[in-house]
Amino acid sequence: MRHLYAWTETEIDQLRLDFLRGLSIKAIARSMDRTPTSVNKALSRFHIRTPRIFKQRQSIPENPSNPSKRRKHLFDKNSNHSLSWTPFSVVLEWLKNQGNEVMLSAGQYYIGRRPHTAMQVVMFANKMRNEQGLDIFLVENLTW
Fold it and tell me: Which of 73, 107, 104, 79 is nearest to 91 (CA)?
């Protein structure tokens, strides 16, 4: 395993894609020849994952009025990946068409009977899409 090596832009892009596809931290670490701890820390360091909140649960609003200023582009201009933003409502509709019961109550989304934040809903949908061999959803203000 690689130790004490800086993350390259290509590795950060790959980390971002793998995380948005719903791969586990261990699977990402194996594929990138990194430790699970380094992958976990990189997800926070590079603002790929929202910070964990332990004392109180907060949900991410569907359309925040002030998007993150740290993120300018998901991929650089030289990347081979195409960028196509999907509205969050399309993700919800897709989940419903897949046979999932999706409801909004008290600021949280419920898939079945489990509460989820908007980001967790997107990750759930992307995991399903990845398993089906479909492209993942990139939702503006939720994925970056």
Answer: 104
Can you give the pLDDT at residue 48?
87
Distance CA 108, CA 118 (A): 8
Q: Structural domains in the chain?
A: 1-51 (1.10.10), 82-144 (no CATH)
Q: Structure pTM?
A: 0.46
DSSP string, 63-82: S-SS--SS-S-SS-TT-S--
- Whose CA is closest to 39, among 10, 54, 30? 30
Task: Name the residue among 122, 83, 85, 86 with its Cα closest to residue 102.
Answer: 122
